[in-house]
Amino acid sequence: MDGWKTVRLIRQALASSRWKGEDLRQVQEERLLNLLIHAYQNVPLYRKLYREAGYHPEQFRSLDDIDKIPILQKDRLKLARPEEVVAQGIDPQRCGIVETSGSTGIPLRIFLGAIDQQWQRVVAWRILFEHGFRWTDRTLEIRMTVGQQFFVQRFGIAPKEWCSILDPPEFWAKRAVETRPDVIVAGAGTLHALAETVQTLGLNLPSPRLIVSDSETLSPATRQLVRQAFGRDPVDVYGLVELSNFAWECERRAGFHVSADSHIVEVAAASGEPGPIITTALGMWTMPMIRYETGDLGEVESARCPCGRTLPLLRRIYGRRVDSVVLQDGRRIFWPFFHEVLGRYEELGQWRILQDAINQVHLQIVLTDKAQCLLSRIKSDLQAVLPGEIHLRVERVETIPLSPGEKTRMIISKVGTAIEPHPVSGREGV
């Protein structure tokens, strides 16, 4: 990797955070047009997809035309052969490969060339530098698989310690004590387990300057626990394995800034309403991801962030479309609804909603022994605000296990894909 080029690209990305809106839009349009032409000419899947829809990149004039570009469905990508999704002239066997967790049983394989990998690193580094990261900072990162060490890290530049999520939380805490990291990066569920362990063992750790939560939605309860354990408010970051991280909280915590110089994000809903998140990665050329339907739901924030950055904002990210309770009429209830009630109880630890059938909701909660008496009260309060047709069962559990891919899903619905949500009108681009 060209280290100086990476530094230059990071600086350019940081500068774009305060560009004028019209300048940012112009860059997006130029990069998207080039990517569309490349995908149509060199990637068989896109050529077939666009011809089926009667679309040609020559039709693109501005971002106002973006909804004319066919949406790329994840299922179609999963079923495609490598030679159909990788640009012609590139050998898939010489590419780096990352895989999604495959919650439906079939993982999605993403092929990355050297330029794509550098681009993803720049995108990730940019978020850290937005929060004051320094090249001398020591990082502790906890992941499903231990990452590689880059050449420059051997010389003390951006030193990183890896832990596997398969190790017990006590091991993570031990390594945190030994390495005294300036930065901790992990999924929200992993951070929750680490913070609990630090408090249980009574460890006195120096407060990291930066704690980053990604891979899943950071719940208010986990945010509070991490703040108590480490004395630092975690930064919530949104992204996907297949697209890298591209939306993040700033120091004002007023929403999620979109890295609009590297990604185009659309929310297929009217303003102020939740809708499917559709994303284009402007720097992925080996296996382009253009108007990729993420499967997540989000909501656009129209107000400008008080931090002064001009990047667009997502007000809220709800997570997977199936991570909601589905009602008989097709309406959906997302996790913030449940937090409004459950967040009143300081004694309440983690919680999870399970829906096995329409009108059947099962709440699992982690409570201390002293708070056992709250079970009936919690059920009563929640039942009072839920639609009358829902039968609610509340159960105390010792722990909430991680889902595949190191995620703790707050809502798991087995009927989430059986009923389509009400159609939405309008589309917000951010």
List the helices and strands and how they pair.
Elements: H1 3-16, H2 21-42, H3 44-52, H4 74-79, H5 82-85, E1 96-99, E2 109-112, H6 114-130, E3 139-143, E4 160-164, H7 169-179, E5 183-187, H8 188-201, E6 210-214, H9 220-230, E7 235-240, E8 244-248, E9 256-258, E10 263-267, E11 275-281, E12 289-301, E13 313-320, E14 325-326, E15 332-333, H10 335-342, E16 348-357, E17 360-367, H11 375-385, E18 391-397, E19 411-413, E20 428-429
Parallel strand pairs: 3-4, 3-5, 5-6, 6-7, 16-19, 17-18
Antiparallel strand pairs: 1-2, 7-8, 8-9, 9-13, 10-11, 10-20, 11-12, 12-13, 14-15, 16-17
Helix pairs in contact: 1-6, 2-3, 7-8, 8-9
Written account of the structure:
Helix content is 30%, strand content 25%. The chain is of the alpha/beta class and 430 residues long. It has a domain at 325-413: GMP Synthetase, Chain A, domain 3, CATH 3.30.300.30. A hairpin with a 2-residue loop joins strand 16 (348-357) and strand 17 (360-367). The two termini are 31 Å apart.
